[in-house]
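User: Before I run my own analysis I want an independent prediction to cross-check against. Here's the chain; please return only the C-alpha cells and, at the end, one sentence I can use as a sanity check.
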Amino acid sequence: MSSGQQVVNGDGPVTLVTGGASGIGAATVRRLLADGQRVTVTGRDQAKLDAFAAELGAGEALLAVAADTTDYAAVRAAVEATVKAFGRLDRVVANAGFSTHDNLADGDPEQWREMLLVNVLGPALLVKAALPELTANGGRIVLVGSTAGIKNTPGNMYSVSKSALTSLAENTRVLVTGSGVGVTLIAPGRVATPFWSGHPQGAAPQGPVMTAENVADAITWALGQPTGVEVNSVVVRPAGQVH
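Assistant: C-alpha cells:
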C-alpha cells in the first residue's frame, strides 16, 4: 500500500505486529488476517516484508512498513502510517526480539547491547508511540516474552532481557489501569521458529517444542477478550517442558 492511498474501511480492529514477517509474528499476522482483520506488519527489511505480503495476498488489509523497533522516530512513523491507512489503531503486538544464545562468561557484550535494545527498549518505544491511539480506542497491548524471563537460564542475557520485558508488562499495566487499555504478557516456552537459527546447534535443543501457530492462538485469544476483561499474563509451554 502506498502512502498516498486512501483509508481502507472496515469494522474490525486494526493491529500492528512488530517482527511480523517470520515465526510467531508471521503466524499471528496470518491468524488476524484470516479473521478478516486489518494488520500492519513491521520489520527491518522492506524486501522481506514485501515478499511476505505478496505470499499472503491480503491486498489492502495488510500494510508492510520497514521500521527499526529501537528507533522511536521509525516506530512512531509506523503508527502514523497505520492510522493513515486504516483510520485507527486498536492493538499492538510487540513481538520483535532475538537471542544471542550465549552467557555472561563467553558472550559478546556488543551483541548483548543490541539484544537488550531490541528486546526491551523496542517494546517500550512501541507502547509510547501507540498509547494515544490505544487509549482513544480502548485498545490492547501484547508483549511477547518468554519462559526464560520467568525461569532464568544460568548467566543468560536473553533471560535478563525477557525478565525486564516481564517487568515492563506489569509496569505498563499499572500505568494504563483505568484508561480502558489492556496489557498482556505472553510468555512462550520452546517454539520451533527461526529464533533458533543462531543457536550453536542450529536448532532448538532436544525436547518438546510448540509451533508458532500455538503461540499465535494464545496471542489472538488475549486480543479477543471482551471489553472489560483483561488477561495480564499467559505462560504457554509445550507439554513436557520443565522450565
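Sanity check: Residues 14-236 form a domain with the Rossmann fold fold (CATH 3.40.50.720).
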